[in-house]
Design goal:
mainly beta, 7-stranded mixed β-sheet, 4-stranded antiparallel β-sheet
Amino acid sequence: QVQLVESGGGLVQPGGSLRLSCAASGRIRSIYVMGWYRQAPGKQRELVAAITNGGNTNYTHSVKGRFTVSRDNAKNTVYLQMNSLKPEDTAVYYCNADLLERGRPLAAVGNYWGQGTQVTVSS
């Protein structure tokens, strides 16, 4: 069974920084794309940033220049460094991964979610 476990959320003042981590564990053969989504109260879940196993990245416009996504393939871990945080960044942040479990055929890549971690930006 595959699990994605996030850590690093919390309360921070506007202009501050936080670093989120997400570690994938279990019967993993390959992880392709890892990323972060967020969902604010009353809003739809949106993609924040994603990174491929080759290191290509993608960001939503509102976080470009402030957030940096990275990953450690040896540790099956993805990070989100969030700088210059704004109140509108307040949301539950979810880790997401496209991965293939050991023992499954190549066509059986699945999409997995973490449980979410709260980020609150407030003075």
